[in-house]
Design a protein that fits this description.
It is built from twelve helices and 13 strands. It has 462 residues and is α+β, with helices and mostly antiparallel strands. It folds into three domains: 179 residues, no CATH class; 96 residues, Helix Hairpins; 155 residues, Histidine kinase-like ATPase, C-terminal domain (Heat Shock Protein 90).
Protein backbone atom coordinates (compact mmCIF):
# COMPACT_ATOMS: atom_id res chain seq x y z
CA UNK A 1 0.00 0.00 0.00
CA UNK A 2 1.30 3.46 -0.92
CA UNK A 3 0.31 6.35 1.31
CA UNK A 4 -0.79 9.54 -0.47
CA UNK A 5 1.85 11.53 1.40
CA UNK A 6 4.67 9.33 0.08
CA UNK A 7 3.45 9.75 -3.51
CA UNK A 8 4.01 13.49 -3.16
CA UNK A 9 7.57 13.00 -1.86
CA UNK A 10 10.53 12.91 -4.18
CA UNK A 11 12.52 9.70 -4.53
CA UNK A 12 15.51 11.34 -2.81
CA UNK A 13 13.35 12.34 0.18
CA UNK A 14 11.89 8.84 0.38
CA UNK A 15 15.36 7.26 0.35
CA UNK A 16 16.52 9.64 3.09
CA UNK A 17 13.41 9.00 5.19
CA UNK A 18 13.71 5.25 4.70
CA UNK A 19 17.35 5.27 5.80
CA UNK A 20 16.54 7.37 8.87
CA UNK A 21 13.57 5.17 9.80
CA UNK A 22 15.53 1.93 9.39
CA UNK A 23 18.53 3.15 11.37
CA UNK A 24 16.30 4.80 13.98
CA UNK A 25 14.34 1.56 14.43
CA UNK A 26 17.55 -0.45 14.73
CA UNK A 27 19.06 2.00 17.22
CA UNK A 28 15.82 2.04 19.23
CA UNK A 29 15.70 -1.76 19.40
CA UNK A 30 19.37 -2.04 20.35
CA UNK A 31 19.00 0.73 22.96
CA UNK A 32 15.90 -0.90 24.43
CA UNK A 33 17.57 -4.30 24.57
CA UNK A 34 20.69 -2.76 26.15
CA UNK A 35 18.65 -0.80 28.67
CA UNK A 36 16.61 -3.85 29.72
CA UNK A 37 19.74 -5.99 29.94
CA UNK A 38 21.55 -3.45 32.14
CA UNK A 39 18.45 -2.90 34.28
CA UNK A 40 18.01 -6.62 34.87
CA UNK A 41 21.68 -7.08 35.62
CA UNK A 42 21.73 -4.10 37.95
CA UNK A 43 18.74 -5.29 39.98
CA UNK A 44 20.06 -8.85 40.08
CA UNK A 45 23.35 -7.55 41.42
CA UNK A 46 21.51 -5.40 44.00
CA UNK A 47 19.46 -8.39 45.16
CA UNK A 48 22.49 -10.61 45.45
CA UNK A 49 24.32 -7.92 47.43
CA UNK A 50 21.35 -7.47 49.81
CA UNK A 51 21.06 -11.20 50.46
CA UNK A 52 24.81 -11.47 51.05
CA UNK A 53 24.71 -8.61 53.55
CA UNK A 54 21.71 -10.13 55.26
CA UNK A 55 23.54 -13.46 55.64
CA UNK A 56 26.58 -11.67 57.06
CA UNK A 57 24.49 -9.75 59.62
CA UNK A 58 22.52 -12.89 60.56
CA UNK A 59 25.75 -14.67 61.40
CA UNK A 60 27.02 -11.64 63.39
CA UNK A 61 23.99 -10.54 65.43
CA UNK A 62 22.54 -12.77 68.10
CA UNK A 63 19.68 -10.67 69.47
CA UNK A 64 17.64 -7.57 69.03
CA UNK A 65 19.56 -5.88 71.82
CA UNK A 66 22.77 -6.18 69.80
CA UNK A 67 21.00 -4.63 66.81
CA UNK A 68 19.72 -1.81 68.98
CA UNK A 69 23.20 -1.09 70.27
CA UNK A 70 24.46 -0.35 66.75
CA UNK A 71 24.06 3.37 65.92
CA UNK A 72 21.87 4.21 62.93
CA UNK A 73 24.75 6.24 61.49
CA UNK A 74 26.70 3.06 60.83
CA UNK A 75 23.87 1.63 58.70
CA UNK A 76 23.39 5.03 57.04
CA UNK A 77 27.04 5.10 56.09
CA UNK A 78 26.58 1.68 54.52
CA UNK A 79 23.41 2.92 52.76
CA UNK A 80 21.41 0.24 54.58
CA UNK A 81 18.38 -0.06 56.83
CA UNK A 82 18.33 -3.17 59.05
CA UNK A 83 15.72 -4.65 61.40
CA UNK A 84 14.56 -7.86 63.13
CA UNK A 85 10.97 -9.04 62.72
CA UNK A 86 9.30 -11.16 65.39
CA UNK A 87 7.07 -13.64 63.64
CA UNK A 88 4.95 -14.39 66.71
CA UNK A 89 3.94 -10.79 67.36
CA UNK A 90 4.35 -9.40 63.84
CA UNK A 91 6.36 -6.48 65.24
CA UNK A 92 9.93 -5.65 64.50
CA UNK A 93 12.87 -3.93 66.06
CA UNK A 94 14.12 -1.74 63.27
CA UNK A 95 17.29 0.21 62.67
CA UNK A 96 15.71 3.09 60.79
CA UNK A 97 12.15 3.25 59.54
CA UNK A 98 10.94 0.23 57.59
CA UNK A 99 7.45 -0.74 56.55
CA UNK A 100 7.40 -4.52 56.86
CA UNK A 101 4.85 -6.57 55.02
CA UNK A 102 3.47 -10.08 54.59
CA UNK A 103 6.52 -11.26 52.66
CA UNK A 104 8.88 -10.59 55.58
CA UNK A 105 6.38 -12.06 58.08
CA UNK A 106 6.21 -15.26 56.04
CA UNK A 107 10.02 -15.55 56.22
CA UNK A 108 9.96 -14.96 60.01
CA UNK A 109 7.40 -17.73 60.47
CA UNK A 110 9.44 -20.13 58.36
CA UNK A 111 6.94 -20.19 55.50
CA UNK A 112 9.48 -18.90 52.96
CA UNK A 113 13.28 -19.32 52.84
CA UNK A 114 13.77 -15.66 51.89
CA UNK A 115 12.00 -12.73 50.26
CA UNK A 116 12.82 -9.85 47.95
CA UNK A 117 10.47 -7.00 47.12
CA UNK A 118 10.40 -3.32 46.24
CA UNK A 119 8.78 -0.72 48.45
CA UNK A 120 7.62 1.76 45.85
CA UNK A 121 6.46 4.31 48.44
CA UNK A 122 9.87 4.65 50.08
CA UNK A 123 11.84 3.64 46.96
CA UNK A 124 13.54 0.73 48.76
CA UNK A 125 14.59 -2.77 47.83
CA UNK A 126 13.89 -5.03 50.84
CA UNK A 127 15.36 -8.48 51.52
CA UNK A 128 14.44 -10.81 54.39
CA UNK A 129 16.19 -14.00 55.62
CA UNK A 130 15.47 -16.24 58.64
CA UNK A 131 17.44 -15.22 61.78
CA UNK A 132 16.21 -17.78 64.31
CA UNK A 133 12.90 -19.20 65.59
CA UNK A 134 10.05 -16.88 64.61
CA UNK A 135 12.59 -14.22 63.61
CA UNK A 136 13.58 -12.66 60.29
CA UNK A 137 16.43 -10.33 59.55
CA UNK A 138 15.29 -7.54 57.21
CA UNK A 139 17.77 -5.52 55.14
CA UNK A 140 16.70 -2.60 52.89
CA UNK A 141 18.66 -0.44 50.50
CA UNK A 142 17.49 2.72 48.67
CA UNK A 143 17.06 2.43 44.89
CA UNK A 144 18.04 5.98 44.08
CA UNK A 145 21.57 4.99 43.01
CA UNK A 146 20.31 2.28 40.66
CA UNK A 147 17.58 4.52 39.31
CA UNK A 148 20.06 7.37 38.72
CA UNK A 149 22.33 4.95 36.87
CA UNK A 150 19.45 3.78 34.69
CA UNK A 151 18.34 7.36 34.06
CA UNK A 152 21.82 8.32 32.88
CA UNK A 153 21.99 5.19 30.76
CA UNK A 154 18.63 6.00 29.17
CA UNK A 155 19.79 9.53 28.45
CA UNK A 156 22.97 8.21 26.83
CA UNK A 157 20.97 5.76 24.71
CA UNK A 158 18.57 8.55 23.68
CA UNK A 159 21.43 10.87 22.69
CA UNK A 160 23.29 8.14 20.83
CA UNK A 161 20.08 7.02 19.12
CA UNK A 162 19.21 10.57 18.07
CA UNK A 163 22.73 11.11 16.76
CA UNK A 164 22.47 7.81 14.88
CA UNK A 165 19.18 8.85 13.27
CA UNK A 166 20.64 12.20 12.23
CA UNK A 167 23.75 10.48 10.88
CA UNK A 168 21.59 7.98 9.01
CA UNK A 169 19.53 10.79 7.49
CA UNK A 170 22.70 12.57 6.40
CA UNK A 171 24.15 9.34 4.99
CA UNK A 172 20.84 8.56 3.26
CA UNK A 173 20.83 12.01 1.69
CA UNK A 174 24.41 11.58 0.48
CA UNK A 175 23.69 8.10 -0.88
CA UNK A 176 20.49 9.30 -2.54
CA UNK A 177 22.29 12.22 -4.18
CA UNK A 178 25.14 10.02 -5.43
CA UNK A 179 23.04 7.01 -6.34
CA UNK A 180 20.25 8.93 -8.03
CA UNK A 181 22.53 11.21 -10.02
CA UNK A 182 22.37 8.84 -13.06
CA UNK A 183 18.58 8.78 -12.72
CA UNK A 184 18.59 12.58 -12.68
CA UNK A 185 20.74 12.64 -15.81
CA UNK A 186 18.41 10.12 -17.41
CA UNK A 187 15.39 12.22 -16.48
CA UNK A 188 17.00 15.37 -17.88
CA UNK A 189 17.91 13.51 -21.07
CA UNK A 190 14.33 12.24 -21.44
CA UNK A 191 12.95 15.73 -20.92
CA UNK A 192 15.50 17.10 -23.41
CA UNK A 193 14.48 14.52 -26.02
CA UNK A 194 10.78 15.29 -25.47
CA UNK A 195 11.41 19.03 -25.63
CA UNK A 196 13.93 19.32 -28.48
CA UNK A 197 13.91 15.96 -30.26
CA UNK A 198 17.70 15.78 -29.80
CA UNK A 199 18.68 12.09 -29.63
CA UNK A 200 22.24 12.54 -28.40
CA UNK A 201 23.26 9.77 -25.92
CA UNK A 202 23.90 10.57 -22.27
CA UNK A 203 27.28 9.94 -20.59
CA UNK A 204 27.53 6.67 -18.65
CA UNK A 205 29.86 5.89 -15.75
CA UNK A 206 30.19 2.73 -13.67
CA UNK A 207 28.79 -0.73 -14.28
CA UNK A 208 25.90 -0.99 -11.81
CA UNK A 209 22.20 -1.34 -12.51
CA UNK A 210 21.78 2.38 -13.18
CA UNK A 211 24.69 2.30 -15.63
CA UNK A 212 23.05 -0.60 -17.46
CA UNK A 213 19.79 1.37 -17.49
CA UNK A 214 21.65 4.31 -19.05
CA UNK A 215 23.20 1.99 -21.65
CA UNK A 216 19.74 0.63 -22.47
CA UNK A 217 18.40 4.18 -22.78
CA UNK A 218 21.28 5.10 -25.11
CA UNK A 219 20.56 1.98 -27.18
CA UNK A 220 16.92 3.05 -27.41
CA UNK A 221 17.99 6.55 -28.50
CA UNK A 222 20.28 5.05 -31.13
CA UNK A 223 17.45 2.84 -32.42
CA UNK A 224 15.07 5.81 -32.57
CA UNK A 225 17.70 7.93 -34.32
CA UNK A 226 18.34 5.16 -36.84
CA UNK A 227 14.61 4.78 -37.44
CA UNK A 228 14.24 8.51 -37.96
CA UNK A 229 17.18 8.53 -40.36
CA UNK A 230 15.67 5.63 -42.33
CA UNK A 231 12.36 7.47 -42.51
CA UNK A 232 14.10 10.66 -43.57
CA UNK A 233 15.99 8.84 -46.32
CA UNK A 234 12.84 7.04 -47.41
CA UNK A 235 10.88 10.28 -47.67
CA UNK A 236 13.74 12.05 -49.45
CA UNK A 237 14.31 9.20 -51.89
CA UNK A 238 10.60 8.71 -52.47
CA UNK A 239 10.18 12.41 -53.19
CA UNK A 240 13.06 12.27 -55.66
CA UNK A 241 11.69 9.18 -57.40
CA UNK A 242 8.14 10.51 -57.52
CA UNK A 243 9.18 13.84 -58.94
CA UNK A 244 10.20 12.50 -62.40
CA UNK A 245 7.02 10.57 -63.33
CA UNK A 246 4.81 13.28 -61.81
CA UNK A 247 6.58 15.98 -63.81
CA UNK A 248 6.31 13.97 -67.01
CA UNK A 249 2.66 13.15 -66.33
CA UNK A 250 1.89 16.80 -65.63
CA UNK A 251 3.63 17.87 -68.84
CA UNK A 252 1.63 15.40 -70.94
CA UNK A 253 -1.65 16.42 -69.32
CA UNK A 254 -0.92 20.11 -69.84
CA UNK A 255 -0.07 19.39 -73.46
CA UNK A 256 -3.37 17.60 -73.95
CA UNK A 257 -5.31 20.42 -72.27
CA UNK A 258 -3.49 23.07 -74.33
CA UNK A 259 -4.20 21.24 -77.58
CA UNK A 260 -7.95 21.61 -76.96
CA UNK A 261 -7.76 25.41 -76.97
CA UNK A 262 -9.13 27.12 -80.12
CA UNK A 263 -5.93 29.00 -80.88
CA UNK A 264 -3.56 26.03 -80.16
CA UNK A 265 -2.02 23.79 -82.84
CA UNK A 266 -3.96 20.59 -83.36
CA UNK A 267 -2.29 17.35 -82.32
CA UNK A 268 -2.37 14.48 -84.76
CA UNK A 269 -4.15 11.31 -83.74
CA UNK A 270 -0.83 9.47 -83.57
CA UNK A 271 0.69 12.11 -81.25
CA UNK A 272 -2.37 12.03 -79.07
CA UNK A 273 -2.19 8.24 -78.74
CA UNK A 274 1.51 8.46 -77.92
CA UNK A 275 0.78 11.00 -75.16
CA UNK A 276 -2.01 8.77 -73.83
CA UNK A 277 0.28 5.76 -73.82
CA UNK A 278 3.03 7.76 -72.15
CA UNK A 279 0.63 9.01 -69.46
CA UNK A 280 -0.71 5.49 -68.91
CA UNK A 281 2.84 4.18 -68.47
CA UNK A 282 3.63 6.95 -66.02
CA UNK A 283 0.48 6.18 -63.98
CA UNK A 284 1.49 2.50 -63.87
CA UNK A 285 4.99 3.49 -62.79
CA UNK A 286 3.53 5.68 -60.05
CA UNK A 287 1.23 2.85 -58.92
CA UNK A 288 4.16 0.44 -58.75
CA UNK A 289 6.29 2.95 -56.88
CA UNK A 290 3.55 3.75 -54.38
CA UNK A 291 2.86 0.05 -53.83
CA UNK A 292 6.53 -0.64 -53.20
CA UNK A 293 6.75 2.31 -50.83
CA UNK A 294 3.75 1.04 -48.87
CA UNK A 295 5.26 -2.44 -48.73
CA UNK A 296 8.63 -1.10 -47.64
CA UNK A 297 7.06 1.10 -44.96
CA UNK A 298 5.05 -1.88 -43.69
CA UNK A 299 8.20 -3.99 -43.55
CA UNK A 300 9.89 -1.28 -41.48
CA UNK A 301 7.39 -1.81 -38.67
CA UNK A 302 8.68 -4.48 -36.23
CA UNK A 303 6.45 -7.54 -36.48
CA UNK A 304 6.47 -10.92 -34.80
CA UNK A 305 6.87 -13.61 -37.44
CA UNK A 306 6.53 -17.02 -35.82
CA UNK A 307 4.16 -19.06 -37.96
CA UNK A 308 5.62 -22.26 -39.49
CA UNK A 309 6.51 -21.71 -43.14
CA UNK A 310 7.16 -24.37 -45.79
CA UNK A 311 9.68 -22.60 -48.02
CA UNK A 312 8.96 -24.93 -50.95
CA UNK A 313 5.33 -23.76 -51.03
CA UNK A 314 6.44 -20.14 -50.80
CA UNK A 315 8.84 -20.47 -53.75
CA UNK A 316 6.34 -22.44 -55.83
CA UNK A 317 3.65 -19.78 -55.38
CA UNK A 318 6.15 -17.05 -56.30
CA UNK A 319 7.30 -18.97 -59.40
CA UNK A 320 3.68 -19.46 -60.48
CA UNK A 321 2.98 -15.72 -60.22
CA UNK A 322 6.23 -14.76 -61.97
CA UNK A 323 5.53 -17.26 -64.78
CA UNK A 324 2.18 -15.59 -65.49
CA UNK A 325 3.86 -12.18 -65.63
CA UNK A 326 6.85 -13.13 -67.78
CA UNK A 327 5.74 -15.70 -70.33
CA UNK A 328 8.74 -15.04 -72.58
CA UNK A 329 11.21 -16.76 -70.21
CA UNK A 330 11.45 -20.26 -68.79
CA UNK A 331 11.85 -21.10 -65.11
CA UNK A 332 14.12 -23.99 -64.16
CA UNK A 333 13.22 -24.85 -60.57
CA UNK A 334 14.81 -27.37 -58.19
CA UNK A 335 13.78 -27.22 -54.55
CA UNK A 336 14.96 -29.09 -51.45
CA UNK A 337 12.53 -29.15 -48.51
CA UNK A 338 13.13 -26.48 -45.87
CA UNK A 339 10.98 -24.99 -43.16
CA UNK A 340 11.32 -22.02 -40.80
CA UNK A 341 9.32 -19.77 -38.51
CA UNK A 342 8.36 -16.57 -40.29
CA UNK A 343 5.91 -14.57 -42.37
CA UNK A 344 4.96 -16.53 -45.47
CA UNK A 345 3.53 -13.45 -47.22
CA UNK A 346 6.69 -11.39 -46.77
CA UNK A 347 8.90 -14.27 -47.92
CA UNK A 348 6.75 -14.88 -51.01
CA UNK A 349 6.97 -11.19 -51.89
CA UNK A 350 10.76 -11.30 -51.50
CA UNK A 351 11.15 -14.38 -53.73
CA UNK A 352 8.74 -12.91 -56.29
CA UNK A 353 10.83 -9.73 -56.44
CA UNK A 354 13.94 -11.82 -57.13
CA UNK A 355 12.12 -13.67 -59.90
CA UNK A 356 10.67 -10.48 -61.45
CA UNK A 357 14.13 -8.90 -61.45
CA UNK A 358 15.63 -11.97 -63.15
CA UNK A 359 12.83 -12.11 -65.71
CA UNK A 360 13.21 -8.41 -66.49
CA UNK A 361 16.89 -8.79 -67.33
CA UNK A 362 16.62 -12.11 -69.18
CA UNK A 363 16.13 -11.99 -72.96
CA UNK A 364 13.11 -13.54 -74.63
CA UNK A 365 13.51 -17.31 -74.57
CA UNK A 366 16.00 -17.07 -71.70
CA UNK A 367 15.96 -19.24 -68.61
CA UNK A 368 15.68 -18.20 -64.97
CA UNK A 369 17.23 -20.78 -62.68
CA UNK A 370 15.77 -21.17 -59.18
CA UNK A 371 17.46 -23.36 -56.57
CA UNK A 372 16.49 -23.95 -52.93
CA UNK A 373 19.32 -25.81 -51.19
CA UNK A 374 20.56 -26.24 -47.58
CA UNK A 375 24.02 -24.87 -46.84
CA UNK A 376 24.91 -27.35 -44.09
CA UNK A 377 25.30 -24.62 -41.47
CA UNK A 378 21.71 -24.27 -40.30
CA UNK A 379 20.55 -22.16 -43.26
CA UNK A 380 19.21 -22.64 -46.76
CA UNK A 381 19.65 -20.45 -49.83
CA UNK A 382 17.19 -19.41 -52.51
CA UNK A 383 19.45 -18.74 -55.52
CA UNK A 384 17.95 -16.99 -58.56
CA UNK A 385 20.11 -16.71 -61.69
CA UNK A 386 19.23 -15.06 -65.00
CA UNK A 387 20.75 -15.09 -68.47
CA UNK A 388 21.00 -11.32 -68.79
CA UNK A 389 24.06 -9.07 -69.02
CA UNK A 390 24.89 -9.42 -65.31
CA UNK A 391 25.73 -6.81 -62.70
CA UNK A 392 28.75 -4.54 -62.99
CA UNK A 393 31.41 -4.78 -60.29
CA UNK A 394 30.71 -1.20 -59.21
CA UNK A 395 27.01 -1.97 -58.75
CA UNK A 396 27.30 -5.26 -56.81
CA UNK A 397 27.56 -3.69 -53.30
CA UNK A 398 24.49 -1.47 -53.85
CA UNK A 399 21.86 -3.55 -55.64
CA UNK A 400 19.89 -4.18 -52.41
CA UNK A 401 19.82 -0.52 -51.34
CA UNK A 402 16.64 1.52 -51.59
CA UNK A 403 16.07 3.35 -54.87
CA UNK A 404 19.44 2.27 -56.23
CA UNK A 405 19.37 1.74 -59.97
CA UNK A 406 22.36 1.18 -62.18
CA UNK A 407 22.92 3.39 -65.18
CA UNK A 408 21.73 0.63 -67.51
CA UNK A 409 18.52 0.13 -65.50
CA UNK A 410 17.30 3.71 -65.50
CA UNK A 411 15.58 3.32 -68.84
CA UNK A 412 13.72 0.17 -67.73
CA UNK A 413 10.50 0.11 -65.69
CA UNK A 414 10.87 -0.32 -61.96
CA UNK A 415 11.02 1.64 -58.72
CA UNK A 416 14.41 0.59 -57.39
CA UNK A 417 12.69 -0.82 -54.30
CA UNK A 418 12.10 -4.47 -55.20
CA UNK A 419 15.49 -5.77 -54.06
CA UNK A 420 15.40 -3.49 -51.01
CA UNK A 421 12.20 -5.28 -49.98
CA UNK A 422 14.07 -8.58 -50.38
CA UNK A 423 16.83 -7.38 -48.05
CA UNK A 424 14.24 -6.14 -45.57
CA UNK A 425 12.44 -9.48 -45.47
CA UNK A 426 15.75 -11.32 -45.05
CA UNK A 427 16.73 -9.13 -42.10
CA UNK A 428 13.33 -9.69 -40.46
CA UNK A 429 13.86 -13.45 -40.59
CA UNK A 430 17.47 -13.40 -39.42
CA UNK A 431 18.84 -14.03 -42.91
CA UNK A 432 20.94 -12.20 -45.47
CA UNK A 433 21.16 -11.38 -49.19
CA UNK A 434 24.05 -11.47 -51.61
CA UNK A 435 24.60 -10.42 -55.24
CA UNK A 436 27.06 -12.05 -57.65
CA UNK A 437 27.44 -13.17 -61.27
CA UNK A 438 26.97 -16.61 -62.81
CA UNK A 439 29.78 -18.27 -64.79
CA UNK A 440 27.82 -17.37 -67.92
CA UNK A 441 27.77 -13.69 -66.99
CA UNK A 442 24.20 -13.33 -65.74
CA UNK A 443 23.13 -11.99 -62.36
CA UNK A 444 23.00 -14.36 -59.38
CA UNK A 445 20.98 -13.14 -56.38
CA UNK A 446 20.97 -15.22 -53.18
CA UNK A 447 18.52 -15.12 -50.28
CA UNK A 448 19.82 -17.06 -47.25
CA UNK A 449 17.42 -17.97 -44.44
CA UNK A 450 17.75 -19.94 -41.18
CA UNK A 451 15.56 -22.94 -40.44
CA UNK A 452 15.67 -26.73 -40.57
CA UNK A 453 15.04 -29.47 -43.12
CA UNK A 454 12.08 -31.82 -42.62
CA UNK A 455 13.39 -35.36 -42.20
CA UNK A 456 11.32 -37.23 -44.83
CA UNK A 457 10.46 -34.73 -47.54
CA UNK A 458 11.69 -35.49 -51.07
CA UNK A 459 13.24 -32.90 -53.33
CA UNK A 460 10.88 -31.12 -55.74
CA UNK A 461 11.82 -30.26 -59.34
CA UNK A 462 9.89 -28.60 -62.13
Amino acid sequence: MTWPATRRMSLRTRVTALAAICVGSAVALVSLAGYLTVRTSLYDQLDANLLQRADSLRNTLASAEQLSDIPDAIFGAADLRVGLLDGSTGRGVVGGELQLGPAELAVARGQRPQSLRTDQGNDLRIAAVPAGPDTALVVAQPLDTARNTLSRLGLVFALVGGAGVLLAAAAGTAVAQAGLRPVQRLTQATERVARTGDLQPIPVSGDDELARLSHSFNSMLAAVAESQERQRRLVADAGHELRTPLTSLRTNLELLVASDRPDAPTLSEQDRHEIYDDARAQVEELSTLVGDLVELAREDVPQVADEPVDLIEVVQRAVSRADRRAQAVEFDVELTPWELAGDAGALERAVLNLLDNAAKWSPDGGTVTVRLQPTGRGTATVRVADTGPGIADTDLPYVFERFYRSSTARTLPGSGLGLAIVAQAAARHGGSVHADRTPGGGALLTLELPGRPPETWPAVTS
